[in-house]
C-alpha cells in the first residue's frame, strides 16, 4: 500500500528496525511513484516529487523524477514552481542534457511579476548553470541587476558570480552594474556586490584598475559600519553587520595589494577598525583577523603593521584554541614582513610549546625557529632543547635538523655550536639526519683548537649512553680520529669528577658497543674502522694486539660489508711500513657552510622561513645537493689545490686503478715504481665533501674498490666503454651516439702534455658546436722512440670538482714504433674556468718494461675555457 503523504512515508521509514526493512519500504514507494508518473496523475505530482526528493536525500535513486520536476516548474502555482526548482537543483547538474529544457522556463520566470518567482529562477540558475545557459541568460541577469527591487538585485548579483565562473569572458557585461551596486544602501545588496567584485578581481586582475577607484566608497561604508550606533536589524552581539565588514575588508585587501595610493586611503580606517572593534567575542575577533590580514597584505605604514601583530599577540592569550591556532598560523606568514614586531611576543610563543593541543605546539614550534637570529639564538635554542626533551617523537627529526641548522647559521662561537649539537645528539640521537651528523663531524675536523675538548665530551657522553645512534656514530668517529688526543688529555669529566682515560678504557667502551643491544651494521662499520685507526694512534702493543683480535672475530661475519672490512683491516697489519700512512687523519674538509646554511632559509631581518620551517623529510637533502652544486665554483682554488697538490699538503697520486685483490689495493695506492711520485700522507690528500665518506662507505662495495673507497677517477679501456659513458649521459647529454654531430672540427692547436722515454702525448682542444660549456679534446699518443711496441696502454684523467669528464676508448691499446693512436676526451666546464687535467699513463713495452707515470696539464688557451 503506497503512502500518500510525505509525513506518512517519513514515519514508515523511521519505524524500520533494519536496513533491509528500509530498502523494502523505499522500493515499494518508488514503484508506486513510478506508476503514478506513468498515469500522468497531476493531482498527486506535487506530493510524489516531494517524497522522491526525500528518498533522494536518503541516498536512493530518484533520477526518474527529473521530467516531473520540469512539469512542476511549468505550473502557474508558486508552490509547484518552488518544489520543481528545488527538485531540479537536487536531481540535475550542469552536465545533463535535460537541463536545456529548463532554459526557457528560467527565462520566462525571470520576467515574472512576482519577485519571489524571479528569485526562484535566479537561485536555480546560480546553482546549476552550465556555460550554455550562462550565455543564453546573461542578458536577463544583467537587466535584473538594475532592478528597483532589493531582493531581486541581491539574487541577481550572486547569479552573475556563477555566470562569471562558468564563462569568464562575460565579465565585462557586469562591470558597470557591479560598480553601481556599491552605492546601494541595502546591506544585503552591498554584501553580494562586494562578493561579486571580489570574484571579478580574482578572475581578471585587469579589473583591479577599474575598482580601485571605488576604494573611497568602500572606506566610507566601512567607516559608517564601525561608527554606527545600535541597529537591531544588523546587530550581531554588539557588532554592526560583521559579515559585511569582513567582505569589505577582503575586497580592500585585494584592491590595496601593490598599490600605494589605494593603501594610503585605507590606512586610517584600518587603524580605526583595529582599535575600536571589541575583541571579547568571536564576532569581533573575526573582524580583527581580517583587518590584520588586510594590513599585512597592502602597503601599510610600519606602525599599522606593529598594531596588527600586537592584535595577533593578544589572540595568543585567548583561551580558545582555535583563535590561538589562527594567530600562530598568521604570525608564521607575517614573520618575514616585520620580524622585530613578532619578536616582542616571543615569550608567549614559547609558552605555546607547552600547550596541550598538538596543532598549537606544531605551529608554535615553526614560529620559534623562524624567530631565531644572532641576538636571541642562545635563549631560543635553550628553550627548544628543553622542548626537545619532552617532545613527541613525530617532532624530533624535524627539530633536530632545524636546531642544528640554526646553530650553524647563528652560532656565537664554535664551542657553543659543538655543545649545542652534542646536546641534540644526547636528547634525540636516534632522530638525527645523516647530513646533520656529517656537518657536525666536518665542524669538529675544522675546529682543531677544540679537538681535545670535543673528544673528551663525546667520550663522556658515549660512556653514559650508547642507545642514541647518531651520538654513537659521531663519538666513535671522533675517538677513532683523535684517540691519541683523548689519551694525552688524560682525563674527562663524569658527574663533576675528573677521571683518567687509558687505551684499554677506550677499547672496552668500543667492545661494549659491539656487544650491546643497540649495535647495527652501520654502527659496527664505524667501530671497526675506528678501532683500526686507533692502532696507529695508540702505542701499547697489548692494546693493538687486542684490537687485532677483535677485528679477526669479524672475518667470518655474515654481513658481507663487515666481513670485507675486517679481512682488509686484518691484512693491513702485515704491512706495518705503510699502515700508519694509510690510517693517518683525514685532511680538514673543505668549508661547505652552505650545505647547512641555505641562503634562503633565513630572512635578512633575522627571522626565517625556508628549510627551518619545512617539515618535509626530503627537502633538506634536496637543498644541500643544490647548494653544493652552486657553491663549487667559489671553492675552485681550494679544490684544485687539494686535487693537484698545490696547497700546503703533500703531493700525492689518488688516481689509482681498481684491483681485484685487497692487498693490491693498498700496494697500488703506494706504488713505489720509479716514475710515480707518492707521499706518506696519501690519505690526507684525498678530498672528500663528506667526512663520513672518509670513514666508511655505507653502500656495499665490491672487492675491486680500494680499501678506503678512494677510487674516484675515470679509467677507460675499450672493454669499459659503455660503463663509462652512461653516468654523464644523463647530466650533460654526452652520449657517444651524438659525438658525430656535436663535435666541431679540431683547430690546429696541439699542446704537448707529456714527453718522456720516447713517448709523446698531445692535446688538441676544440669547442663543442651544440654546447659552449663543453670542451672536446683529441688526445694523440705517439710512439716516437720507445724502441719497441707500446702495449696495454691505459690512459686515465681527472678534472676539478667543478667540471665533469667523459672519455671515449682509444683507437688501439697497442702502438707500433712511429705509429699514432688517438682518443677523445669531453670536459663539461660550466664555470668557464681553466681546464686542469691530471693524467696517468700506464703501458708495457714488448721488451718487457713497464711504465706508470703521472703528468699534469693546464696550458689550454683562454679561448677554449
From TrEMBL:
Among the Pfam families in the record, one is: Alpha_adaptinC2
* Listed Gene3D superfamilies: 2.60.40.1230, Leucine-rich Repeat Variant
- GO CC terms, sorted: AP-1 adaptor complex; cytosol
Residue ranges, annotated region (Disordered): 588-610, 646-688
| Primary site of residence | membrane
Compositional bias (Polar residues): 648-660, 669-688
Give me any GO biological process, just one: cytosolic transport
Give the top-rank taxon of the lineage listed in the UniProt record for this protein. Eukaryota
GAE domain sequence ranges:
746-861
Regions of biased composition (Basic and acidic residues) lie at 590-600
| UniProt KW keywords | Cytoplasmic vesicle, Golgi apparatus, Membrane, Protein transport, Transport
Give the record's subunit note.
Adaptor protein complex 1 (AP-1) is a heterotetramer composed of two large adaptins (gamma-type subunit APL4 and beta-type subunit APL2), a medium adaptin (mu-type subunit APM1) and a small adaptin (sigma-type subunit APS1). AP-1 interacts with clathrin.
Q: Which PANTHER family match?
A: ADAPTIN, ALPHA/GAMMA/EPSILON
Which protein are we looking at?
AP-1 complex subunit gamma
Amino acid at each position: 500500500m503506497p503512502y500518500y503523504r510525505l509525513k506518512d512515508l517519513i514515519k514508515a521509514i523511521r519505524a524500520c528496525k533494519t536496513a533491509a526493512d528500509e530498502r523494502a519500504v523505499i522500493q515499494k514507494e518508488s514503484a508506486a511513484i513510478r506508476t503514478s508518473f506513468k498515469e500522468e496523475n497531476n493531482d498527486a505530482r506535487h506530493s510524489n516529487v516531494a517524497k522522491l526528493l526525500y528518498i533522494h536525500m536518503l541516498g536512493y535513486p530518484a533520477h526518474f523524477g527529473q521530467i516531473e520536476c520540469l512539469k512542476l516548474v511549468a505550473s502557474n502555482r508558486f508552490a509547484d514552481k518552488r518544489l520543481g526548482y528545488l527538485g531540479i537543483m537536487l536531481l540535475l547538474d550542469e552536465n545533463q542534457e535535460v537541463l536545456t529544457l529548463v532554459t526557457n522556463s528560467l527565462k520566462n520566470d525571470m520576467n515574472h511579476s512576482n519577485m519571489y518567482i524571479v528569485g526562484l529562477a535566479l537561485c536555480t540558475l546560480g546553482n546549476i548553470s552550465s556555460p550554455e545557459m550562462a550565455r543564453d541568460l546573461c542578458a536577463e541577469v544583467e537587466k535584473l541587476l538594475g532592478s528597483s527591487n532589493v531582493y531581486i538585485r541581491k539574487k541577481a548579483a550572486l547569479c552573475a558570480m556563477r555566470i562569471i565562473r562558468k564563462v569568464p569572458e562575460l565579465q565585462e557585461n557586469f562591470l558597470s552594474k557591479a560598480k553601481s551596486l556599491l552605492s546601494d544602501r541595502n546591506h544585503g545588496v552591498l554584501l553580494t556586490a562586494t562578493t561579486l567584485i571580489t570574484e571579478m578581481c580574482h578572475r581578471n586582475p585587469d579589473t583591479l584598475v577599474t575598482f580601485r577607484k571605488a576604494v573611497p566608497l568602500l572606506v566610507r561604508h566601512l567607516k559608517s559600519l564601525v561608527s554606527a550606533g545600535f541597529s537591531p536589524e544588523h546587530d550581531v552581539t554588539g557588532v554592526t553587520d560583521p559579515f559585511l565588514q569582513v567582505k569589505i575588508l577582503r575586497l580592500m585587501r585585494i584592491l590595496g595589494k601593490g598599490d600605494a595610493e589605494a593603501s594610503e586611503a585605507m590606512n586610517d580606517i584600518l587603524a580605526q577598525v583595529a582599535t575600536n572593534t571589541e575583541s571579547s567575542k568571536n564576532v569581533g575577533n573575526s573582524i580583527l583577523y581580517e583587518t590584520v590580514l588586510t594590513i599585512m597584505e597592502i602597503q601599510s605604514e610600519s606602525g599599522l603593521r606593529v598594531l596588527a601583530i600586537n592584535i595577533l599577540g593578544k589572540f595568543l592569550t585567548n583561551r580558545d584554541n582555535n583563535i590561538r591556532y589562527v594567530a600562530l598560523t598568521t604570525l608564521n606568514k607575517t614573520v618575514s614582513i616585520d620580524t622585530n614586531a613578532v619578536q616582542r611576543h616571543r615569550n608567549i610563543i614559547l609558552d605555546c610549546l607547552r600547550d596541550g593541543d598538538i596543532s598549537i605546539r606544531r605551529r608554535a614550534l615553526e614560529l620559534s625557529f623562524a624567530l631565531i637570529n644572532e641576538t636571541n639564538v642562545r635563549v631560543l635554542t635553550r628553550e627548544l632543547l628543553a622542548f626537545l626533551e619532552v617532545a613527541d617523537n613525530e617532532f624530533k627529526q624535524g627539530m633536530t635538523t632545524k636546531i642544528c641548522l640554526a646553530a650553524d647559521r647563528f652560532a656565537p662561537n664554535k664551542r657553543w655550536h659543538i655543545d649545542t649539537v652534542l646536546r641534540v645528539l644526547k636528547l634525540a640521537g636516534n632522530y638525527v639526519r645523516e647530513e646533520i651528523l656529517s656537518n657536525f663531524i666536518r665542524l669538529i675536523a675544522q675546529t682543531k683548537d677544540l679537538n681535545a675538548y670535543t673528544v673528551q665530551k663525546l667520550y663522556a657522553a658515549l660512556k653514559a649512553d650508547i642507545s642514541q645512534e647518531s651520538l654513537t656514530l659521531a663519538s666513535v668517529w671522533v675517538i677513532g680520529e683523535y684517540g691519541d688526543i683523548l689519551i694525552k688529555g688524560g682525563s674527562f669529566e663524569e658527574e663533576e669528577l675528573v677521571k683518567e682515560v687509558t687505551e684499554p678504557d677506550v677499547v672496552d667502551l668500543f667492545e661494549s658497543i659491539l656487544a650491546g643491544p643497540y649495535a647495527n651494521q652501520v654502527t659496527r662499520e664505524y667501530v671497526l674502522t675506528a678501532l683500526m685507526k686507533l692502532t696507529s694512534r695508540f702505542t701499547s702493543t697489548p692494546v693493538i694486539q687486542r684490537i687485532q683480535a677483535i677485528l679477526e672475530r669479524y672475518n667470518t661475519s655474515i654481513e658481507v660489508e663487515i666481513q670485507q672490512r675486517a679481512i682488509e683491516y686484518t691484512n693491513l697489519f702485515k704491512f706495518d711500513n705503510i699502515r700508519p700512512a694509510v690510517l693517518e687523519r683525514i685532511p680538514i674538509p673543505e668549508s661547505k657552510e652552505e650545505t647547512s646554511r641555505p641562503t634562503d632559509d633565513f630572512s635578512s631581518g633575522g627571522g626565517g622561513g625556508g628549510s627551518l620551517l619545512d617539515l618535509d623529510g626530503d627537502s633538506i637533502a634536496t637543498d644541500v645537493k643544490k647548494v653544493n652544486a652552486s657553491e663549487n665554483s667559489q671553492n675552485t682554488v681550494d679544490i684544485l689545490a687539494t686535487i693537484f697538490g698545490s696547497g700546503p699538503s703533500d703531493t700525492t697520486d689518488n688516481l689509482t686503478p681498481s684491483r681485484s685483490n685487497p692487498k693490491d689495493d693498498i700496494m697500488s695506492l703506494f706504488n713505489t715504481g720509479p716514475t710515480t711520485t707518492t707521499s706518506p700522507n696519501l690519505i690526507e690528500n684525498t678530498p672528500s665533501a663528506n667526512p663520513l665518506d672518509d670513514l666508511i662507505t655505507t653502500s656495499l662495495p665490491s672487492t675491486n674498490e680500494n680499501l678506503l673507497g678512494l677510487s674516484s677517477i675515470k679509467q677507460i679501456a675499450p672493454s669499459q666503454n659503455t660503463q663509462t659513458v652512461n653516468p654523464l649521459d644523463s647530466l650533460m647529454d654526452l652520449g657517444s651516439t651524438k659525438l658525430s654531430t656535436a663535435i666541431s672540427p679540431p683547430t690546429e692547436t696541439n699542446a704537448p702534455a707529456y714527453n718522456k722515454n720516447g713517448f709523446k702525448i698531445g692535446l688538441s682542444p676544440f669547442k663543442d658546436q651544440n654546447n659552449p660549456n663543453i670542451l672536446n679534446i683529441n688526445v694523440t699518443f705517439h710512439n716516437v722512440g720507445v724502441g719497441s711496441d707500446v702495449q696495454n696502454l691505459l690512459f686515465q684523467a681527472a678534472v676539478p670538482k667543478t667540471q665533469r669528464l667523459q672519455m671515449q676508448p682509444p683507437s688501439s691499446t697497442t702502438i707500433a714504433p712511429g705509429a699514432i693512436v688517438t682518443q677523445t676526451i669531453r670536459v663539461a666546464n660550466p664555470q668557464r674556468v681553466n681546464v686542469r687535467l691530471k693524467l696517468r699513463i700506464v703501458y708495457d713495452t714488448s721488451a718487457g718494461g713497464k711504465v706508470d707515470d703521472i703528468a699534469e696539464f693546464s696550458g689550454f688557451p683562454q679561448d677554449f675555457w
